[in-house]
Amino acid sequence: MTRSELITQLAAANPHLRQPDVELIVTTIFDEIITALARGDRVELRGFGAFSTKRRDPRTGRNPRTGTAVAVEGKAVPYFKPGKELRERVNGGPLQEPPRKVRAPAKV
């Protein structure tokens, strides 16, 4: 699923929201996750999973064309660990609708 497909599905599932608003929401969520990872923070979405960064140490690599040794600097790479609910649903667990919040009737 691409970002645009996600936005289209969310807009269809939430007709009270305009598509540009859904696009802004999705972009904002992704931007916040990216910003938190850039700061070195961990982002946990209960039931879905956790985003974090892992550190790769510097190493010596090889140029595939020439075979010469090349120094590769250490770096941080994004890492995703799926949550229990996501793993169970992907591995054949029951596909159930996520719980929806129901508003209590307004008091008059």
TrEMBL record:
User: What name does UniProt use for this protein?
Assistant: Integration host factor subunit beta
Q: Name one Pfam family in it.
A: Bac_DNA_binding
Q: Which GO terms describe its molecular function?
A: DNA binding; structural constituent of chromatin
Q: What does the UniProt record say this protein does?
A: This protein is one of the two subunits of integration host factor, a specific DNA-binding protein that functions in genetic recombination as well as in transcriptional and translational control.
The family note in this entry says: Belongs to the bacterial histone-like protein family.
What species is given as this protein's source?
Answer: Falsiroseomonas algicola
Keywords tagged on the record: DNA recombination, DNA-binding, Transcription, Transcription regulation, Translation regulation
GO terms for cellular component? chromosome; cytosol
Assembly and partners?
Heterodimer of an alpha and a beta chain.
Show the InterPro entries listed in the entry. Hist_DNA-bd, Histone-like_DNA-bd_CS, IHF-like_DNA-bd_dom_sf, IHF_beta
Region annotated Disordered, chain positions: 82-108
Q: Which BP terms does GO give this entry?
A: DNA recombination; regulation of DNA-templated transcription; regulation of translation
Q: Which domain of life is it from?
A: Bacteria
